[in-house]
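Sample entry (126 residues):
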Amino acid sequence: MPATKADLTSLETRVLSEVGSLETRVLTEVGSLETRVLSRMDDLEARLFSEVGGLESRMQSQMVSLELRVLEGLEKTETTLLKEFRKWAISFESKFRASDALVVGFSERVTSLEERVAELEDRGRA
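Predicted structure, serialized as tokens:
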């Protein structure tokens, strides 16, 4: 039996109703999915910020530790250099004093020789 206009209208109404019902269910599911996705994104964002915060704290701690080690190394190097310089200065001062004593001794001998030469010249003229 062929379909009548009323049958086609009834079929169209049912199809439209089913499509509307499907559209409502799809929109509901999409809304629910969107809510779940946004919730997961919020959770992931919170975890990410937490991890980044922890990483930042660890990096700051390591930087402080590294800075302390560098400062300790610099202080040790400075102390070593000052000790070695002091040793050199003491040695240099000792050698300088010894040289100064030699110069004074040579100066006295030269003065003595000059006096003797002057006496000999005076005797030779007389």
